[in-house]
């Protein structure tokens, strides 16, 4: 029987921030693959196939070296989680091919808000006023970054919104898995199932990738393997409703990558939105720190 990790909000916050950097990198690579920068534009099914294939290879190599102890998986939860993750990634990778990276990331990473909401009925978590306040502040920052105009309400934007809802649901399935299985067990089973699902889907749209596209798919899979490792370990050390708002850090990394690779300089609106998101995360971290130092009680934050 797997023993749950000790509650450690500070470490969970650090791990989720590292995960954000790598998750933003996967959307950057997906944008390049979804356009004609390195060859014919790829279908989102094929991009997601590359993500699962190379992530599974990375984790398989790690398993050969580390030889971790694996638990008997809860196949129902794993299948639900992987189907959700696959669908969310397909929608996300489809959206970034048509709208700016920062906009797609801003919309899709409303998923922490949905994740916190789903945590109430699915996990029975008590979400008090401070967590709600922090989530609302972060949501306001995301809306600012989104720049809500008639142009925002296009099909690609709705794809990203759909990704946010699905990935918010997946967030809570991951939390349930962390209560009974080790992080590595969760990752290896998830990616094994993901390879099967992605392979069945990609058979209908397969096209021969260029060498550069193979490299980008390998980059997506490797970056996601690192991100998942950090993310699952974070979820094992804190409540889903605490971890969720820190995921907004992906927006900041996406803006940085826009500067580095697309020469898109953040304007005042981008900076303002990012600052609001950071404020929400810091409020939550401050309150959780005070709670940890206090005597245990049953009151929510």
Question: Helices, strands, pairings?
Answer:
Elements: H1 9-34, H2 44-66, H3 75-96, H4 101-108, H5 111-123, H6 129-146, H7 155-178, H8 183-202, H9 211-235, H10 240-243, H11 249-262, H12 268-293
Helix pairs in contact: 1-3, 1-9, 1-11, 2-3, 2-8, 2-9, 3-7, 3-8, 4-6, 4-7, 4-11, 5-7, 6-12, 8-9, 11-12
Which characteristics define this entry?
globular, 301 residues, disordered C terminus, single chain
Structure description:
With 301 residues, this protein is an all-alpha fold. It contains twelve helices and no strands. The relative contact order is 0.22.
Question: What gyration radius follows from the Cα positions, in whole Å?
Answer: 19 Å
What structural class do the secondary elements suggest? Answer: mainly alpha
User: Spans of 5+ residues with little confidence (pLDDT < 50)?
Assistant: 297-301
Tally of DSSP β-strands: 0
The biggest beta sheet, please? none
Shape: globular
**Which strand-content bin applies to the residues?**
under 5%
**What is the count of helical runs?**
12
What does the average pLDDT come to? 82
N-to-C terminal Cα separation, in Å? 30 Å
What's a quick, concise take on this entry?
This protein is mostly helical and 301 residues long. It contains 12 helices and no strands.
């Amino acid at each position: 029987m797997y023993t749950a990790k000790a509650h450690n909000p500070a470490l969970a916050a650090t791990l989720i921030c590292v995960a954000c950097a790598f998750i933003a990198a996967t959307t950057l690579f997906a944008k390049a693959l979804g356009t004609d920068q390195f060859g014919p534009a790829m279908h989102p099914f094929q991009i997601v196939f590359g993500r699962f294939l190379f992530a599974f290879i990375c984790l398989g190599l790690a398993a050969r070296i580390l030889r971790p102890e694996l638990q008997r998986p809860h196949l129902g939860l794993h299948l639900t989680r992987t189907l959700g993750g696959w669908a969310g990634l397909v929608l996300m990778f489809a959206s970034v091919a048509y709208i700016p990276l920062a906009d797609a990331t801003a919309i899709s990473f409303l998923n922490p808000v949905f994740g916190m909401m789903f945590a109430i009925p699915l996990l029975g978590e008590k979400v008090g006023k401070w967590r709600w306040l922090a989530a609302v502040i972060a949501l306001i920052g995301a809306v600012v970054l989104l720049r809500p105009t008639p142009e925002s309400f296009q099909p690609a934007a709705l794809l990203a919104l759909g990704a946010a809802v699905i990935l918010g649901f997946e967030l809570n399935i991951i939390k349930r898995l962390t209560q009974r299985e080790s992080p590595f067990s969760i990752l290896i089973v998830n990616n094994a199932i993901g390879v099967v699902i992605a392979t069945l889907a990609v058979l209908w749209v397969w096209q021969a990738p260029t060498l550069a596209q193979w490299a980008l798919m390998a980059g997506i899979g490797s970056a996601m393997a690192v991100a998942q490792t950090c993310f699952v370990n974070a979820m094992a050390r804190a409540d889903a409703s605490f971890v969720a708002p820190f995921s907004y850090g992906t927006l900041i990394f996406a803006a940085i990558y826009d500067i580095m690779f697309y020469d898109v300089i953040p304007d005042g609106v981008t900076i303002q939105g990012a600052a609001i998101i950071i404020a929400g995360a810091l409020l939550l971290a401050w309150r959780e720190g005070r709670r940890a130092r206090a005597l245990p009680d049953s009151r929510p934050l």
